Amino acid sequence: MTSLEVLIVDDEPAIRQVLAAHVARAGHSVSQAGNGTGALDRLSKGDVDVAICDIQMPDISGIELLRRARAAGIDTSFIMMTAYASVDTAIEAIKAGAADYMIKPLRNEEVMHRLLKVGDVRGLRAENQVLRKLVQGKREDSFNFRSPAMRELERLISKVAPTDSTVLVTGDSGTGKGVIARLIHQQSPRADAPFIPINCGAIPENLMESELFGHTKGSFTGADKARKGLFLEADKGTIFLDEIGELPLQLQVKLLHVIEEKMVRSVGSEQARRADVRIVAATNRDLRKMVDEGTFREDLYFRLSVFHVHVPPLRERRQDIPGLVQFLVRRGAQRLNCGAGVTVAADVDELLTAYDWPGNVREMENVIDRALILAEHGNITCSDLPPQITRLMSVDRPESMAAEPGGNLREQVRRFEESVIFRAINESDGDRRLAAQKLGIGLSSLYRKLEEYQALGSLPADENESRQ
After folding, report:
1. CA-based nearest residue to 218, from 456, 44, 409, 360
2. 233-242 in b/e burial notation, b at 16+ Cβ within 10 A?
3. Residue-wise over 64-101: b if at least 16 C-beta within 10 A, else e?
4. Across residues 91-97, what is the average pLDDT?
5. Torsion-angle region of 115 (φ positive above 0: left; ψ -120 to 50: alpha; else: beta)
6. Helix (H/G/I), strand (E/B), else coil: 83
7. Which residues face 101 on adjacent strands?
8. How confident is the model at residue 403 (pLDDT cuts 50, 70, 90)?
9. In this predicted structure, what is the pLDDT of residue 139?
């Protein structure tokens, strides 16, 4: 059963205390109020999930309390109780917005059953809200890795996923650390519960604690209503803390407490609530170095890195690139409505495999999307690729000519000169004037050299024109 924040409202102390003790033994957080006025004050903080409320009270009735709570925008589920049962009373309570209705004397088993039902409904509603805001753990088409490094990573994931161990995922920017975190969630017993990703570097420091742990109404300026917090939204599921190295030191202490105690205290609340959450953290920074520099807590580092997996950059697993290109082309074509059957020219595959991908998979996805938009007749060619990739083709070509054996000294010097000139042009993104400046020659001299190469057949006429 999910841990709930429960308020017992009854003017008879004995009933309150017995009921509160039983609810607390079931693992819920409990507070009490002896009248409607005190209950409304407690409810105004906005963190109460369920109020078990007597209908007959000396100051205001339970039904009036419910109406006032609803008018104030308080999202608490009410279970009404009374010793004076009647159909009219039940109908009035339900019309006012009560979730359920019980007759005194209460049986403990019945109370637990009603709480379970209300908790399940609230959990479903909360998860639907999260689904609208966040990308959940949707099972996307899987990609089969070919490189030994990624196959070993898959093996490690299969080992740690079924456990509740905290996992630290490291790797360069864009390598797919978020995908790895999602795979861990999908292969775990928590797969049907929420997967909530949080970028610790994207949330302002003054709002971070409230975002993670929630707040009560009025706990700070601008807190016009209570917020549950992402840790409690992720209850029974997985929370993914991306860019964990950006977490301020003050919040590192609170995160450590959550990991150790499995309890979350909202800003402005006196009650701590149990949070059954699996934590996966990721960073492209060297946390061990940050520990030595005093910018990351050593105890938190050890808690997070119970199980450490590293995602290698694309340049270290080129065997995966051709298959990954095809995977991204299929997925991108569907997303961009480019139609089925998009093909990739062979020389495009060669270029994409040779490129070092400093932005890794994220950069590759952007390049593929651009190519899909530019492609004619469903065929991606080299002309659809950005300059930083296509210059590899032009640079490699003269280098290969320069490396050809044979020929007299003049021929070998000419081929070397060609390679230097072509490289300068490509490094200048085709700007002849800039290339001439880099080479230390006049622009007219550069054009004369290119005309010579064209006459010798090294440079086709149409290519020379396109370069101008």
Report:
1. 44
2. bbbbbbbbbb
3. ebbebbeeeebbbbbbbbbeeeeeebbebbeebebbbb
4. 81
5. alpha
6. coil
7. 80
8. very low
9. 47
Rounded distance, CA 280 to CA 256, Å?
13
Residue reference for tokens 């920074």: 285
Query: Beta strand 278-283 with 307-311: parallel, antiparallel or unpaired?
Result: unpaired
At 30-44, the pLDDT tens digits run: 999 999 999 998 998
∠298-150-202 over CA atoms, to 5°? 50
* Mean pLDDT of all residues in 310-332: 92
Q: What is the DSSP string of 161-190?
A: TTS---EEEEESTTS-HHHHHHHHHHTSTT
Exposure of 136 by Cβ count < 10 A (0-12 exposed, 13-18 middle, 19+ buried)? middle
Element (H, E) at 422: helix 409-427
342 touches 333 (CB < 8 A): yes
Contact predicate 31/7, CB 8 Å: yes
SS3 call for 455? helix
Q: Which helix (H) or strand (E) holds 255?
A: helix 249-261
pLDDT mean across residues, the chain: 84
> Domains (ranges, CATH) in the chain?
5-132 (3.40.50.2300), 148-312 (3.40.50.300), 315-385 (1.10.8.60), 389-467 (no CATH)
Predicted TM-score of the model (pTM): 0.61
- The answer to whether the beta carbons of residues 268 and 312 sit under 8 Å apart is no
Q: Which two tokens stand for residue 120?
A: 């399940």
Distance CA 195, CA 180 (A): 12
- What is the rounded distance in angstroms from the CA atom of residue 364 to the CA atom of residue 170? 19
Nearest to 160 by CA among 142, 136, 130, 185: 185
Amino acid, res. 106: L
